[in-house]
Amino acid sequence: MNRPSGLTALAVLNFVVAFWTLLVGVISLFMLTGAIQPKKGQVFPPETILAVTSAFSFLDVPLLITAGVGYLKVMRILGRHLGSVEAVLGLCFFGFLTGHALNVGAPLQFSALKYLVYPGITLVLLNVVFRENLTE
User: Fold this and answer.
1) What is the DSSP letter of 104?
2) pLDDT digit string, tens, across residues 36-88
3) What is the three-class DSSP state of 125?
4) 108 and 79 in contact (C-beta within 8 Å)?
5) Strands (DSSP E) along the chain, which ranges?
6) What stretch of H or E contains 103?
7) 3-class secondary structure for the chain?
8) Distance of CA 5 to the CA centre of its chain
9) Which of 28, 29, 79, 93 has the most beta carbons within 10 angstroms of its beta carbon?
10) How many other C-beta atoms lie within 10 A of the C-beta of residue 107?
11) How far is the C-alpha of 41 from the C-alpha of 122, rounded, in Å?
């Protein structure tokens, strides 16, 4: 079966997002452990956010990479199902960030929308657009 070019683009985008997520996770971990100190007048996010962000990142990166490989190999389990699980995990993380921001009265960071937009688009692409392609 030929792989649609859109599925290839989604796989490449998954690898880019995996790299970015890994970078965010490592920086969050360094901030949490004190390896990175805040500059004068700079305030780090609460430890809860840093810990959950680190844990989410290190759980999400292997899922993103494995799902990307599944897209490239046009596999139903690795591509469609694992990609859907990763997208739902990203939406749950967005829900956590939103809930925490509302709980403490802080504004939601614009960068948190990545955890809403990319998983939402991924779910639509996997379960509507590429549904017939990821059947093997």
Assistant:
1) H
2) 888 888 888 888 888 999 999 999 999 999 999 999 988 888 888 999 999 99
3) helix
4) no
5) none
6) helix 82-104
7) CCCCHHHHHHHHHHHHHHHHHHHHHHHHHHHHHCCCCCCCCCCCCCHHHHHHHHHHHHHHHHHHHHHHHHHHCCCHHHHHHHHHHHHHHHHHHHHHHHHHHHHHCCCCCHHHHHHHHHHHHHHHHHHHHCCCCCCC
8) 22
9) 79
10) 6
11) 38
Residue 111 scores a pLDDT above 90:
no
Q: At what angle do helices 82-104 and 114-124 cross, to 10 degrees?
A: 150
Give the residue carrying structure tokens 């955890």.
115
Burial class, 132, CB count within 10 angstroms (exposed 0-12 / middle 13-18 / buried 19+): exposed
Distance CA 24, CA 101 (A): 18
| pTM, two decimal places | 0.88
**Six-digit token pair at 102?**
């509302």
Taking alpha carbons only, the member of 44, 47, 67 closest to residue 55 is 47
Look at the block and give the residue holding tokens 């956010």: 49
Tokens of 68: 């990307």
CA-nearest of 1, 49, 4, 59 to 28 is: 49
Rg value, the chain, Cα: 17
